[in-house]
Amino acid sequence: MPELRRDPLTGRWVAIATERRKRPNDFRVERMAADPVEQCPFCPGHEDMTPPEIFALRPEGSVPNGPGWNLRVVPNRFPALRVEGALDRQGHGLFDRMNGIGAHEVIIETPEHAADLASMDEHVIVQVLAAWRERMLDLERDQRLRYVIVFKNQGGTAGATLDHPHSQLIALPIVPDIARREIDGARKHYADHERCIFCDIIRQEIAEAQRVIAEDQNLVALAPWASRLPFETWFLPRHHGAQFEEAPRSEYESLARMLKGTVARMNKALASPPFNLIVHTAPFAEEVGPFYHWHVELMPKLSRVAGFEWGTGFYINPTSPEEAAQVLRAAAP
User: Fold this and answer.
1) pLDDT tens across 177-220, in order?
2) Is residue 135 within 8 Å of residue 108, measured between CB atoms?
3) Is 166 considered catalytic here?
4) Cα-based distances in Å from 333 to 5, 64, 249, 330
5) What does the pLDDT read at residue 19?
6) Which of 88, 131, 231, 326 has the fewest CB atoms within 10 Å of its CB?
7) Could you report the per-residue pLDDT of 237-254, keeping only the tens digit for each?
8) How many beta carbons lie within 10 A of that of residue 283, not counting itself?
9) Fold annotation for 1-333
10) Which of 104, 166, 280, 295 is catalytic?
11) Is the dihedral of CA 60, 66, 70, 74 positive or negative?
């Protein structure tokens, strides 16, 4: 059973998940070769290489856990957290711990082994976003869980251990520190100004137009003012909403179009970099609607986080967001 332990100095929670030592490629710095299709557990015909599917998009008549699917969601074979059991919160001297209860799922986004966000049809990406939504709504019903993060690692240096297009979802019994800091900052801005800080950011960025990469009637993609990493990109809905899973389909369609276009721009301008994509959404059962705003962050792996960043939490970005936005605007596919 994984275990969650709390650092008494910082309040930070850490998952101790020793079963993940069984994963292939653990403790390797980089994977150098692509996975052969015949060995890929996510390819059609290899459904017996994954746990049974939790959710799938299949044509009528297609048999569960067999070929013929358009998208599958399966439990992670090497989960950071497990669904079964009770939290069993305990003290251990001055330390706090609880069982590593949660959910860890893999969204196999397409049967196409060599696809990526830039090559997928927009309707396929919309299907992926809708699958994220369905799994989030289902996990919200579990009273033990308080937060869900959806993320996508593409490329070995971004943390992916398989090449086949996939994303992951982890539901947690706690609200992680980064989400809590965002919520607290948004709450303070709202208390001071009676406005959502994300809505204010969107208005100012559109008015200045220096850091905007793309926009439509539903969404804006921009290089954030204080970008931590080169070519970091945020996707924010124009209309206020705290929860990704409650967004209207029109916003998913815009997000699919902008994700596809932005990754295509990065592939053209930056030689197809590995990247991390993260969905930021409101916690379960916590009233943050007036001041929090869901968004998606895309961070290509173009620089290394090293000792200074780890020791201070202070990032050094060699590329200004204004320059990054200009480069990506010019790299229209």
Assistant:
1) 999 999 999 999 999 999 999 999 999 999 999 999 999 999 99
2) no
3) yes
4) 46, 38, 25, 9
5) 72
6) 88
7) 999 999 999 999 999 999
8) 21
9) HIT family, subunit A (3.30.428)
10) 166
11) positive
